[in-house]
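Consider the tokenized backbone below.
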């Protein structure tokens, strides 16, 4: 009987012949329920929180209804980790092994992945397990309810990081001093801010020295988009274990940034290479090759089923066809240069042209209020925007911390002009309640109503 591991070395040698380079990958076969858990949590071991359980139930129901089949889950790193469902057939696992090597080549050589891995580290699986261990320790010390409230706040903001700034960034510079960004300075600035905060009306009326009473630089000195970072360092009454949770969530969000921003490219690259490697795999029998390519066709098909066109894009299909087109027209060397330097935003805008969009039968559509769908086949920029709109800012509305008022109120502003994305006010108010539980003073969000007039949502 055929066994996937018998062919793994042959596939690796074939990949090396084509110039694929990657960190070692550790393969492990696991039960389907563990696969679902890994896919939902995003990592094999992660901080405990009820929201992951909700997602697990949803995905488990989808799987039982035939709406999804998780063949593998891959975690880039050095080494990389690949989990394969033990219900896969051996031939499916041969294709999946080739697919995983494509992912490993992408994450090893793409500049965005490398930039993030240089900051976060190459052992995110172990780091996430350490985060989970520390949070369980916090639960034992402070109780499930207190820790869960902090996790509620941190995870509600997991999309709000600023990837244009490094993971390890210094605190704001005081205008009155030429600060160094040492650890000692960081603590000094935090203490100075806490003293000024406590001196606000209703705070701890501490005695302030002449130096501390001098006018201080505004906080934040510019609109701050990294909400997790700001709250972790400037919420004046946050305890160390609470800060640790916020920074752990932030670190994991940085890790997921390239996964999210390169999904179409990455899945397409892995699909292109699993198909090409299997076509060149003369060690496979014709029957096994046909079975493997049938699985390939199921993975990269553009349709929801045999009779309906999908109104959402299968990233495997779009990415695969684009890489196939690029390899055929520009060659492997140019394709690799694109893989190394692009993300989904530049990839779609630069290389999905009119002819390829028509060939793939892609179109932009809008749903009217009466339920009718209006299709536009000729507006390429709108098609690009439609494909990418859910990727901006992790798919979340643009929110920035704009100021701290004299009474300690934290003011956030909805930057709706950036992408035109609106707010679910009920969700927004709940998130503000989470923030207020950490800030421990009033919190206000400035946004606009349906008529474009400014509207304020306040909590506390």
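A designed sequence for it:
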């Amino acid at each position: 009987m055929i066994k996937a591991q018998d062919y793994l070395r042959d596939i690796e040698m074939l990949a090396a012949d084509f110039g694929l380079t990657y960190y070692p990958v550790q393969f492990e076969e696991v039960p389907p329920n563990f696969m679902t858990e890994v896919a939902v949590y995003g990592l094999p071991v992660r901080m405990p929180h009820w929201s992951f359980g909700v997602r697990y139930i949803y995905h488990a129901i989808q799987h039982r209804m035939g709406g999804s089949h998780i063949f593998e889950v891959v975690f880039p790193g050095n080494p990389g980790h690949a989990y394969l469902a033990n219900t896969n057939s051996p031939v499916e696992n041969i294709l999946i092994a080739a697919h995983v090597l494509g992912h490993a080549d992408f994450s090893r050589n793409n500049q965005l992945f490398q930039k993030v891995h240089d900051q976060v580290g190459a052992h995110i699986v172990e780091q996430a397990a350490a985060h989970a261990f520390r949070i369980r320790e916090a639960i034992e010390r402070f109780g499930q309810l207190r820790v869960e409230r902090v996790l509620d706040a941190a995870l509600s903001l997991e999309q709000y990081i600023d990837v244009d700034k490094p993971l390890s960034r210094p605190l704001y510079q005081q205008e009155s001093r030429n600060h160094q960004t040492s650890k000692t300075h960081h603590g000094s600035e935090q203490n100075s801010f806490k003293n000024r905060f406590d001196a606000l009306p209703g705070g701890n009326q501490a005695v302030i020295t002449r130096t501390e009473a001098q006018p201080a630089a505004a906080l934040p000195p510019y609109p701050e988009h990294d909400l997790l970072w700001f709250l972790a360092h400037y919420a004046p009454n946050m305890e160390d274990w609470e800060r640790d949770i916020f920074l752990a969530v932030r670190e994991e969000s940085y890790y997921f940034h390239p996964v999210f921003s390169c999904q179409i490219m990455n899945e397409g690259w892995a699909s292109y290479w699993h198909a090409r490697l299997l076509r060149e795999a003369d060690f496979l029998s014709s029957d096994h090759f046909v079975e493997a390519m049938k699985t390939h066709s199921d993975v990269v098909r553009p349709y929801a089923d045999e009779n309906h066109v999908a109104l959402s894009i299968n990233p495997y299909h779009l990415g695969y066809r684009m890489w196939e087109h690029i390899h055929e027209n520009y060659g492997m060397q140019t394709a690799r240069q694109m893989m190394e330097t692009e993300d989904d935003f530049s990839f779609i805008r630069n290389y999905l042209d009119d002819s390829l969009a028509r060939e793939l039968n892609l179109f932009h559509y809008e749903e009217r209020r009466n339920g009718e769908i209006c299709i536009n086949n000729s507006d390429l920029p709108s098609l690009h925007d439609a494909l990418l709109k859910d990727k901006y800012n992790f798919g979340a509305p643009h929110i920035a911390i704009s100021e701290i008022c004299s009474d300690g109120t934290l003011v956030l502003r909805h930057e709706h002009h950036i992408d035109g994305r609106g707010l679910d006010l009920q969700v927004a108010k709940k998130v503000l309640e989470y923030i207020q539980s950490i800030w421990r003073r009033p919190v206000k969000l400035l946004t606009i109503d349906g008529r474009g007039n400014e509207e304020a949502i306040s909590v506390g």
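Residues 174-186, 205-215, 304-311 have pLDDT under 50 and may be disordered.
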